[in-house]
């Protein structure tokens, strides 16, 4: 690689040495060799390439690697990936080349950091697609997003080199997305610097005004803090505590936000700076933090409304600290932050430090781990465009948290504004999908109830419950929204499948010659955009069987409807027109259900089977009731077209009778059947025990009127107490 000047070469050598010093505590000699290999590879890949500032391009990946090592505290793999992160995107190097030389893990991270090429769409869509890709890889390996944040930080530090319009675009994007993401991952220092640099380019006059005032007041702040801490430090020393005291102004951006939201100027902000007391790690760091709080409040009166206990309930990003605001002797409010060295590392370096201490202490997953897992779940359950996901994700990034308890006392952290329904989905997707209500602090509330910190929530569920479209108005968390959308999508698909099954059966019944062509005709007839929408409308009965049959007629679909609607029905191999469907059409393939053996006069309905025509059931048939409950989309209204009389069709019906045994009782019953009703008796049996008589018979009946008359006559027989109808199949038992 050609380096134009000795000075440039010296700068490059110095930066590389800075990288080695930064990673010295966390890498081995073998790691150093791999880092050197990656540096030389990147140096060659970016040869003759310069940034818009005019400097050699290699300075950028080298600077990103230094941030990753020194400011975030990541290890050798992340440093190697930082050095190579632009190689695939900006040079002729391929992912295959990276994998062959540095392995699959490095190639996977580099792939996550490489922007999508060849994507067609508007700027927001491209941004959303690229960010979605980063998050997708982040859910598998969080180092992807940490390196991306380091990359963005260096770009912001060198933003002077680009045009004004590019500065505004990049700064706005940083403020909108990358700073909140750094905050969510616990990278407080990086988050603050990204916000300040964004303000520098979006509101340069305001930024410089605030920055100048901070610098002018620095020495005054130092004198005040020294005086304020003097009595406290004396007591801390007596207690034998090892500690460090830091004092710093709030970031320019946070000061700007307070000035803007409260409509005040710089001098009216009472908490311009904070004092931080960091105790060295001890066996009982939380107790030590409260000891320091006790010492502070012995000297200065605290504001009880400004106490923040993030020791007991850490923030979602892993932040732990004890904050109090006290009144100094000079009448100024002072914020004091109390934390251990471990807590400070996590607060400043975020997820990397959190992971380091987690491995050391062998702790379970924290809120931050759960959040990263939830990002993966959100992506896997995503339904919609990348832009929609992007907007929802940003909304969750900016949210503050509320702390909610289950009835068992388990703590759940949700974004501010979350509802009872959000809480249900946070517990478990199944709980959310079956949620019908909630009790907040033992009081029944609607699903849309907004929760506040300290609420104890009990979720009420029902297996009959299903998500509704308006649920999307009740939730704010991405997890709940994605699960509801997925469930609604699955339900639509299920309804569409039911509709498709019904249409396929109908087309088969009428001998459709070209199913695809006929469906295209129906879609056009009902003016629907797709076959899915057509099947869905059939499945939810928005398009009824009657509508479909009418369309068949108009479009001349199927042999049966083309020939005539007067063809005789086949009722258990009888060719008599005795049943008509509720839509006015007769069918060529009707059968009486054997489970209930309907006869003329019974209330009936048709059930469309798959490949076996239409079964006719009585409406009070137990099997029929289940079919109507579970397969309503396959139910057709049906009725008897005319009353069947003697010498026409007949139907087997079972009659059961019970009573007191009298002489000649069975003979009386058979005489009524054979002489008065002149019907064939297919089977009879009877028994008598201890004076009780019972029996059953099967006779051929023409219709319900005929049956009712026969039953009344049998009831008149001396000794008979009850006479009932039963399904013929029962006689087999």
Overview of this protein structure:
The structure is a single chain. With 733 residues, the protein is of the alpha+beta class. The protein has six domains: 206 residues, Hypothetical protein af1432, CATH 1.10.3210; 149 residues, Beta Polymerase, domain 2, CATH 3.30.460.10; 118 residues, Ubiquitin-like (UB roll); 76 residues, no CATH class; 62 residues, no CATH class; 82 residues, Alpha-Beta Plaits (2-Layer Sandwich), CATH 3.30.70.260. It is built from 29 helices and 20 strands. Strands 1, 2, 3, 4, 5 and 6 form a six-stranded mixed beta sheet that branches. A five-stranded mixed beta sheet has the order 12-16-14-15-13. A four-stranded antiparallel beta sheet has the order 18-19-17-20, covered by helices on one side. Strand 9 and strand 10 form a beta hairpin. Helix 1 runs parallel beside helix 3. The longest helix has 32 residues. About 3% of the residues have low confidence.
